[in-house]
C-alpha cells in the first residue's frame, strides 16, 4: 500500500469535506499518484456498507408495520399505512439506484423478518409466538404497493 504524506493524513483527519474536495480535484486532473488511496478505499467500502445497512433498516421497519397491521387490526392507523408506503418507496429508490441490492434484499429477508418479529412483539406487547416464525409475507408481497395483509 501507498504511504501517505503527512499533509494528506492530516487533511483526512482534520477536515473530511476538504479531503473529499481534494480527492475529487485530484481525480479530475488525473493526479492519481497524489491520491490518498488508503482512506479513499476505506470510504468507498463504508459507502457500500451504509447502503446495505439502510436497506436492511427500511426492510425491518416495513416488516414490523406489516406485522402490526396484520395482527392488530383494531389498532390500524393512517400512520401505519404511511410508514408501510414510505419504506416501500425507500426500498424501490434503493433498487433503482443500485439494482444489485435486490439480491442482497433476498439474502437478508429471513433474518430481517426475525428481527422485525422480535421488535414487533416488544413494541406491541404481544407474545412473540403470536407472530409466526416464518414470514407470512413473501419478499414480493412485502414490496408490492397493492398488498396489505388481512
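Sequence proposed for the structure above (150 residues):
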Amino acid at each position: 500500500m501507498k504511504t501517505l504524506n503527512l499533509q494528506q493524513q492530516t487533511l483526512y483527519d482534520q477536515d473530511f469535506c476538504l479531503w473529499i474536495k481534494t480527492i475529487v480535484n485530484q481525480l479530475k486532473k488525473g493526479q492519481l499518484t497524489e491520491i490518498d488511496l488508503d482512506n479513499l478505499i476505506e470510504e468507498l467500502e463504508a459507502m457500500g456498507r451504509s447502503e446495505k445497512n439502510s436497506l436492511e433498516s427500511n426492510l425491518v421497519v416495513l416488516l414490523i408495520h406489516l406485522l402490526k397491521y396484520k395482527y392488530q387490526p383494531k389498532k390500524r392507523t393512517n400512520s401505519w399505512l404511511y410508514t408501510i408506503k414510505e419504506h416501500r418507496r425507500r426500498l424501490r429508490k434503493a433498487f433503482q439506484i443500485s439494482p444489485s441490492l435486490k439480491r442482497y434484499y433476498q439474502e437478508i429477508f429471513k433474518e430481517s423478518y426475525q428481527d422485525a418479529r422480535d421488535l414487533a412483539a416488544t413494541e406491541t406487547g404481544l407474545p412473540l409466538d403470536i407472530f409466526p416464525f416464518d414470514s407470512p409475507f413473501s419478499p414480493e408481497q412485502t414490496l408490492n404497493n397493492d398488498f396489505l395483509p388481512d
